[in-house]
Design brief:
10-stranded mixed beta sheet, globular, D-Maltodextrin-Binding Protein, domain 2, about 35% helix, 12 helices, alpha/beta
Length: about 300
Amino acid sequence: MMGVRIGTAERDSTFLNQGHALKTVLDRHPALAPVEVSTSGHASVENANRLQANDIDFGFMASNWIGRAKNGETPFAQKIDLRMAAPMNAGPLFFIARADSDLRTVSDVRGRRLVVGPEKSGMTQHARVILGALGLTFSDFTPMYLDFAAGAEALERGEADAQLQCPIPNKVMTALAAQVLLRVLPYAAADLDTVLRAVPFYRRTVMRKGAIRGLDADVAQAAVVNVLVTHARTPEDTVRDVASAIFNARDELPRLNALFDGLAALFEPLRSDGATALEFGGVALHPGALAAYRSAGLLA
């Protein structure tokens, strides 16, 4: 196989930025180079469909979409035989409001104007899942279906009360925080535990003080695990080489791109929980990935 093709997301997206860092690492391996990184307009969903069409060999996906693709659930028109390759990062999902707002916790969005993301986007699905775990539906507030940049502008102008954002760092958040003082909404006591118990593809993370202007204390949040997936048909040797290269670069990748911070920790549950630690939505690890992690001593 000559080179590997990796699908990411839209221009200036976090997946695309991570993809370029990943290319730097993978291009060193003669069996994998040249690595082609391409954009995908609808990120996770489009990457699953592109894998099915054999348009790419690997794709970035948020783990909440993987089971839906495997089962052919909406928005997927057919079942897609995905396999897990490697974790990429755990991206905090967080609600922001202007610092002069009277919103104090996530649950306070009831009755307010909340930017949730484009209507069929992964962000809107996250809003449904997170707020649903807290007993809120979209009829309990006014959802605004805007992308990150347009939503940030609406918040800045006072046309929205809060916005769901992800991850850190991201250019839109950095620019918005430079224009207007913000508050990252914490969860009320026990609410974050409720969300994490309800949703297996989230992890607890901490947004560190100073991560954005106005964040003056550490705040615990939910994070979605983003992953690199492949198709069952992808050759075992190729997947093994990619998974091995990523694991071996687990300390280097965060230096190349801060979005990979915490990558090494995402592999550790393999030691205690076995392969199921990375098998979100019932999608199995590719045999090539299993071979890579066994070789690395992560799996018995």
